[in-house]
Amino acid sequence: MPDYKAPLRDIKFVMSELLDSEQHYASLEGAEDATPDMVDAIIGEGAKFCEQVLSPLNQVGDQEGCTWSEDGVKTPTGFKEAYQQYVEGGWPSMAADVEYGGQGLPNSVNLVMSEMVGTANWAWGMYPGLSHGAINTLESHGTEEQKQTYLTKLISGEWTGTMCLTEAHCGSDLGTLRSKAEPNSDGSYSITGTKIFISAGDHDMAENIVHIVLARLPDAPKGTKGISLFIVPKYLPGEDGSAGEKNAVSCGSIEHKMGIHGNATCVMNFDGAKGWLIGPENKGLNCMFTFMNVARLGTAIQGLSHAELGFQGSLDYARERLAMRALSGPKNPEGSADPIIVHPDVRRMLLTQKSIAEGARALIYMAAQQSDILHQGKTEEERQAADDMMGFLTPIAKAFLTEMGHESANLGVQVFGGHGYISEWGMEQNVRDARIGMIYEGTTGIQALDLLGRKVLMTQGESLKGFTKLVHVFCKENADNEQMKEFIEPLQALNKEWGEITMTIGKNAMKNRDEVGAASFDYLMYSGYAVFAYLWARMAKVALDKMAEGTEEEAFYNAKVETARFYFKRLLPRSRGHVAMLEAGADSLMSLPEDQFAF
Amino acid sequence: MPDYKAPLRDIKFVMSELLDSEQHYASLEGAEDATPDMVDAIIGEGAKFCEQVLSPLNQVGDQEGCTWSEDGVKTPTGFKEAYQQYVEGGWPSMAADVEYGGQGLPNSVNLVMSEMVGTANWAWGMYPGLSHGAINTLESHGTEEQKQTYLTKLISGEWTGTMCLTEAHCGSDLGTLRSKAEPNSDGSYSITGTKIFISAGDHDMAENIVHIVLARLPDAPKGTKGISLFIVPKYLPGEDGSAGEKNAVSCGSIEHKMGIHGNATCVMNFDGAKGWLIGPENKGLNCMFTFMNVARLGTAIQGLSHAELGFQGSLDYARERLAMRALSGPKNPEGSADPIIVHPDVRRMLLTQKSIAEGARALIYMAAQQSDILHQGKTEEERQAADDMMGFLTPIAKAFLTEMGHESANLGVQVFGGHGYISEWGMEQNVRDARIGMIYEGTTGIQALDLLGRKVLMTQGESLKGFTKLVHVFCKENADNEQMKEFIEPLQALNKEWGEITMTIGKNAMKNRDEVGAASFDYLMYSGYAVFAYLWARMAKVALDKMAEGTEEEAFYNAKVETARFYFKRLLPRSRGHVAMLEAGADSLMSLPEDQFAF
Question: Distance (Å, rounded) from C-alpha B556 to C-alpha B282?
Answer without folding.
Answer: 54
